[in-house]
Amino acid sequence: MCSSLNNDSMMECTLHGIKRPAFICAHLQYGVGLGFHQPDETDNDDEFSFQNAWCDECNDILLEEGEWNDRSEGFAKIMAICEGCIEEIRARNS
Q1: H or E element: which one contains 39?
Q2: Whole-prediction pTM value?
Q3: pLDDT for the residue numbered 35
Q4: How many domains does the chain have?
Q5: Assigned domain for 29 exists
Q6: Which long-range contacts (CB under 8 A, 24 or more apart) does 12-15 make?
Q7: Is residue 54 in some structural domain?
Q8: Cα–Cα distance measured from residue 67 to residue 72, given in angstroms and rounded to the nearest whole number
Q9: What residues form DSSP beta bridges with 23?
Q10: Strands (DSSP E) along 1-94, which ranges?
């Protein structure tokens, strides 16, 4: 059974233990120097406050589309990681 995400959601990472989830484009997972984009604080109108990030190529498509939609999300292949992993990914790709 799968429950839905909320601000109290946690996940277990083999490297960082129990952490909050974060969401990235699949390109960033093993990428190096791909760029690192996150939403502006003022752009976050979601009810949840998870960290999100995407690479330069995903950002180009996002700008073309003007929003996250089937095309931009399909290209990004969004995946869940832990907040500890997103910090390592930021360092490799910024």
Answers
A1: none
A2: 0.84
A3: 98
A4: 1
A5: yes
A6: 13/81, 13/82, 13/84, 13/85, 15/82, 15/84, 15/85
A7: yes
A8: 8
A9: 52, 80
A10: 11-13, 17-19, 21-24, 51-53, 79-82
Interstrand relation of 79-82 and 21-24 (parallel, antiparallel or unpaired) = antiparallel
Q: Write out pLDDT tens, residues 59-70.
A: 999 999 999 999
- Report if residue 1 sits inside a domain: no
Q: Would you give the distance in Å from CA 77 to the centre of its chain?
A: 10
Domain that holds residue 68: 11-39+50-93
Predicted confidence (pLDDT) per residue in 1-54, tens digit: 456 888 888 999 999 999 999 999 999 999 999 999 999 865 555 555 789 999
Q: Is 31 inside a domain boundary?
A: yes
What three-state secondary structure class fits 13? strand
